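SAMPLE LOG
Freezer: B-3
Tube label: C17
Construct: single chain, 306 aa
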Amino acid sequence: MTFNVRRHSRGFTLVEMLVVIAIIAILIALLLPAVQSARESARRTECASNMHNVSTAAFRFEAERNRYVGHVETQKVRGMPIGRPWVYALLPYMEQDALYNLHSNYLGPGLDITQLIPKLNMVLCPSNMDDAEAPLHFVLNAGQLDTPDGTGCTIDSSPTANGVYTHMPDFTRQVVSPAFVKDGTGNTLAVSENVQARNWSDLSERYVTFLWFDEYDDTDATLEHMAINQGLALGGITALDDSWARPSSNHPGVVNVSFLDNHMKTLNEKISYVVYAQLMTPNGEAAVGVNIGAKVRAYRLNESDY
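STRUCTURE (predicted):
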């Protein structure tokens, strides 16, 4: 006699399905931050690589000319001195000779906006979203703010002791050479990120450099001004806001920087403002001012400070 045994397959109950869905949701919630962190880490690495290329170009400029590039450089066009942005001055050192030559005969300031001013990946950080025509995410150390009241800056007032990449108009002959770097090239900042910098064709100090100023009150957190990542929540662009000319990034808690000896580092946004100012001064003992300047003159930098 043959017995046929009928087996009934049992499906998932609603409760079981809900448990499975809940487990999957928990796993996704656990994995998502790790994935996002890995992506940000990759973006920060690419950002640092791009910055290092810019820093290397500035390093090559200095090695060839025995002076640092000005955040505004002078180019002679048909015998006339014309202001040019620092990115443009470094183009030949970044294998961008064709773009450099494209604007070599333009007589106006900045660059000829009637011609192509392309987006340059080498001056961008992939962590930043930017809808500018030719965005700039890296800025140069210009030292102490010339006029801390926000009304603008004078082109010949930056003491060479307090900045590296100063304005270089033809008639002032300001030159900052390695001889001014008394604190050592490995202790003096060169390039930083800035999420509110403008187009790389701009000339203004507040848009293409980062700065420090003596009136900062490092004892009152409500009066912070030009500190690392300060004011990031503001967003956008304000025409005369010097407070944004400071290191800033979209990397949580840190910002990529390079030093004059071309080594890279991530700075914590919580470092002391005196340390930040000291890192910007080629010669801390010559810092100007009675507040932060006086503290910089009296302080001896330690690598553990940053």
